[in-house]
Amino acid sequence: MNVYEGRPEDFECRKEKEQKVYEILDSLGIRYQRVDHEPVATIEACREVDEALGIEICKNLFLCNRQKTKYYLLVMPGSKNLQTKELSPQIPSSRLSFASGEDMERLLNVSPGSATIMSLIYDCDNQVQLLVDEEVLAEETFGCHPCVNTSSMKLQAADVFGPFLKAVHHDYIKVKLS
């Protein structure tokens, strides 16, 4: 698996939502490494990507409350499992469950298996609250998809949780998951 610096040479051939990620990162002067690969929809399928980039791709879970009035994008280490009873009191929101693929498409312009912090560029109305596990925030680097699950990126965590989130008008809530 080849590791590349910056946007792909075949940029114009990529999906528009992937192009938009590279455009915003480039406009902010955020450097990134990238690999292209077969579609990966699970953390287990990302192991080869992790090795190539020297990172652990984060698990991104799209959640909602029972009434479907509040939506959350939870970013956590791929090795952790979510216990909603542990998360709920920290945000606070009871009765969390996985949001539908339709809601993910509508709010973040990504399909299941492609959820990513980068998709917040499409949440212009700030309907999705970003939740980040403290272990992710403690890392120097951050791995994610550019709104498609056929490419993965390695960025500096400070760039993602600083200039990127500021540019897309989002903040995060730090959570602690065991």
TrEMBL record:
Ribosomal protein as UniProt keyword: no
Alphabetized UniProt keyword annotations: Ligase
Molecular-function GO terms, alphabetical: ligase activity
InterPro entries linked: ProX/PRXD1, YbaK/aa-tRNA-synt-asso_dom_sf, YbaK/aa-tRNA-synth-assoc-dom
Transcription regulation as UniProt keyword: no
Domain YbaK/aminoacyl-tRNA synthetase-associated: 37-159
One Pfam family hit: tRNA_edit
Family statement drawn from the similarity comment of this UniProt entry: Belongs to the PRORSD1 family.
Protein name in the entry: Proline--tRNA ligase
